[in-house]
Amino acid sequence: MTDKSIVMVTGGSGLVGSAIRDFVTANPKENEEWVFLSSKDGDLRDRKATEAIFDKYKPTHVIHLAAKVGGLFANMAQKVEFYRENTLINDNIMELCRINKVQKLVSFLSTCIFPDKTTYPIDETMLHDGPPHPSNEGYAYAKRLIDTMNRAYAEEYGCNFTSIIPTNIYGPHDNFSIQNGHVIPGLIHKCYIAKRDGTPFTIWGSGTPLRQFIYSLDLAELTVWVMRDYHSPDPITLSVGEEDEVSIKDVALSVAKAMKFEGEVIFDTEKADGQFKKTACNKKLRSYLPDYKFTTIDEGIQMSVDWFLANYETVRK
After folding, report:
1. Which of 22, 141, 185, 266 could be bridged to 181 by S-S, CB 3.0 to 4.6 A?
2. pLDDT of 197-224, one tens digit each?
3. Known catalytic residues?
4. In whole angstroms, what is the distance from residue 250 CA to residue 234 CA?
5. Closest by Cα among 268, 257, 247, 271 to 191
6. Strand pairing category for 210-211 and 246-247
7. What whole-number distance in Å separates Cα of residue 79 and Cα of residue 36?
8. d(Cα 84, Cα 193) in Å, to the nearest integer?
9. Nearest Cα to 166, choosing from 209, 124, 103?
10. Nearest Cα to 279, choosing from 118, 135, 70?
11. Who contacts 152 (Cβ-Cβ below 8 Å, separation ≥6)?
12. pLDDT tens digits, residue range 245-284?
């Protein structure tokens, strides 16, 4: 990148966008200017609003994080909205990157869009091998099309579009809603309330499902590496290794420890567990960055709890 790069981050105020902002602020690079969009900048579902954003900032690079997202229960209740809104957003971003000759587009996928019935660990080549879990098929099919279209744009127009598959992300600036948030921030908020009210810390489900979690600042650093140095339309999984998979029970106990919660911990087995496991393989990442050191789950949870407590009044919850 010799000329000045203008990197536009959609969904720039959320969990990953905020982490990228923190990372590039701490590690600035000459000739790189960063623009972080939030929903206040315009509705990316709307073509004209999206065109106005591209005209205003004239990005040379785009990191596309914006999406309609939610946890298991929200996905089950609103499949139509999760499909339609994500498809509209992604189509506008991809087509305007082509029209405006953006040099690089990096979009985010998710491990939950992989086939439900599969062998583990899953890797990047298995994305389209079968239908996704029925609980989030609206979201999953909209996201899978990004991968299809990255290859189509490369073949037909020579566009340098790629995608990232992160595992479960957590960290500062997350959505700590108990109803609509993801597992770690939801547990942090729940544990806070249990400690405050002197009530049991109740976890939905049995606690047995296994997950790989990536701390948001690790993901931010690796995302910037993808933008600068990974040039292939094929997706790349950004994740801790298979050996770092943890159970929801272990996560809940780590949250309780970080929160200094001394009360009773209960697992409500009446609630759905979702998929038991969706282990992802990070061998492709390791072939490029063999020595990258990830933040451990206990360190990451402690930093997330500390941030939540320090920002309790203003966090999304």
Report:
1. 185
2. 999 999 989 999 999 999 999 999 999 9
3. 139
4. 33
5. 257
6. antiparallel
7. 28
8. 35
9. 124
10. 118
11. none
12. 999 999 999 999 999 999 999 999 988 887 788 899 999 9
